[in-house]
Design brief:
This protein has 415 residues and is mainly alpha-helical. It has one domain (14-414): Growth Hormone, Chain: A, CATH 1.20.1250. Helices cover 85% and strands 0% of the residues. The chain has helices at 2-9, 17-35, 42-49, 53-81, 84-101, 107-135, 138-170, 172-193, 198-206, 209-221, 223-253, 258-285, 291-311, 317-331, 335-344, 351-380, 384-414. Helix 6 (107-135) packs antiparallel against helix 16 and helix 11 (223-253) runs antiparallel to helix 12 (258-285). The longest helix has 33 residues, at 138-170. It is globular. The N and C termini lie far apart (43 Å).
Length: 415
């Protein structure tokens, strides 16, 4: 045990936070590349299994059900054991879950193994967030978290850019299977190259299981964290609706080719990648690390974008492009700010479990909102109802963030 500790800490002098960020980014990217593939591949899986729009919405819902189940336990384990040991475990959990899924044809079994894979997908957030909190200072975290979180949007964009056309050509099953193999290799690579910082290791050794359970209940009593998490409920669900339905909307309702419909998804995810970095830098350097005002700005832009998509019944591909750019920049770019806020309003040694608690709420939004979107489309025969619904969700989020602003100002005055 002591020898392993020495080996872990020995190269520390040669390491720096930005190099460690690259390994966290790699892990986050490949996990998203596989896990978020259920969005762009949903149209192909739906055709293969003869699914309704609502059932297609259940695919990402199942992924995030797994994330919901894993979020708090993964946060507790990360607080106790550190990020490095769990990187490979999360990668293998998702990789093997989706590998099995590619051999199945019964919808309920597909959902089951997507859910099991979601355990690994959801674990990666507290694992990588913990590394960010310990490797970077407060003034660097918005940018660093934004860069790390681009792995999610970049992975989803690559899934749309690579897996969707390859899946259309060769079938979604062998293509997704190959992606799973790549994920397993990346998990092994991250395990051997990443190191936990010394102060995180010291904090880990002092933690007991009882104190971790006590920390979880403290998180639930933390009103600002609960308001942050409630806003994430609406934003996460809305983001997954964009990922899941933009291809179906463009292809089936607007008559845009499957390839160009997939390009729209890629555009939204690439815009989200830029958004995650840009929003973090804007927060750090223009708003003195104020995260809440950034979330409010994102909320307003998302509501407007969703309304424009709802009204674009006869839009061409090129008419949708600027709308999707703003849409993705906003709602696909919010995650880094959310993760920063969820970890910064608690002591940093509790950042893993605060991430897990907040992820539970965000994941619940993804479980509920995309199937509701699909149900509305199935009932009305038109995607406009779904996009109007998302604008309504943003009104709800705006109200929650307004309460959060008041609460944080009150706490600031009292302290």
């Amino acid at each position: 045990m002591n020898l392993g500790m020495v080996n872990t800490q020995r190269p520390m002098a040669k390491l720096n936070p930005w190099r460690m960020l690259l390994f966290l980014l790699l892990a986050q990217l490949l996990v998203a590349f596989v896990g978020r593939s259920v969005g762009p591949l949903g149209v192909l899986i739906g055709k293969d299994l003869a699914l309704t729009k609502s059932q297609i919405g259940m695919l990402p819902a199942a992924l995030f059900l797994g994330q919901t189940l894993a979020a708090v336990p993964a946060g507790m384990l990360t607080d106790r054991f550190g990020s490095r040991r769990l990187l490979i475990g999360a990668s293998f959990c998702l990789g093997f879950g989706f590998m099995v899924m590619t051999y199945l044809s019964q919808f309920w079994l597909v959902l089951l193994f997507v859910t099991l894979g979601g355990l690994g997908y959801g674990s990666m957030h507290p694992i990588t967030n913990k590394g960010i909190i310990y490797w970077f200072t407060l003034k660097q975290r918005g940018t660093a978290m934004g860069i790390k979180q681009t792995g999610v949007t970049a992975g989803a964009a690559l899934a749309g850019l690579i897996l969707l056309p390859l899946g259309a050509e060769y079938g979604w099953r062998p293509v997704l299977l190959a992606a799973c193999v790549l994920l397993l290799l990346s998990g092994i690579l991250s395990y051997f190259l990443y190191r936990d910082p010394p102060d995180q290791t010291q904090a880990i050794n002092k933690k007991g299981l009882k104190s971790l359970y006590q920390s979880m209940f403290k998180m639930i009593k933390n009103k600002p964290l609960m308001l942050v998490s409630l806003s994430a409920f609406g934003m996460s669900g809305s983001q997954m609706c964009l990922n899941t339905y933009i291809v179906l909307y463009a292809h089936e309702q607007l008559g845009i080719s499957l390839f160009l419909a997939g390009v729209l998804l890629v555009i939204s995810e690439v815009s989200g990648s830029f958004g995650r970095i840009a929003w973090g830098m804007i927060s750090d350097y223009l708003f003195n690390s104020n995260r809440v005002i950034i979330l409010i700005m994102i909320c307003v832009l998302t509501a407007i974008s969703s309304l424009l998509v709802a009204l674009a019944n006869n839009a061409s591909f090129w008419m949708l492009v600027p709308i999707v750019i703003v849409f993705g920049f906003a709602i696909a770019g919010f995650n880094g700010i959310w993760m920063n806020l969820a970890t910064e309003i608690v002591p940093r040694e509790q950042s893993g479990i605060s991430t897990g608690v907040s992820l539970t709420f965000g994941s619940t939004g993804v479980i509920i909102i995309p199937p509701l979107f699909g149900f509305m489309v199935d009932q009305t025969g038109n995607f406009a109802a779904g996009w109007f619904f998302l604008s309504g969700v943003m009104v709800f989020v705006f109200i929650v963030l307004s309460f959060l602003t008041i609460k944080m100002k009150t706490n600031s005055v009292q302290s």
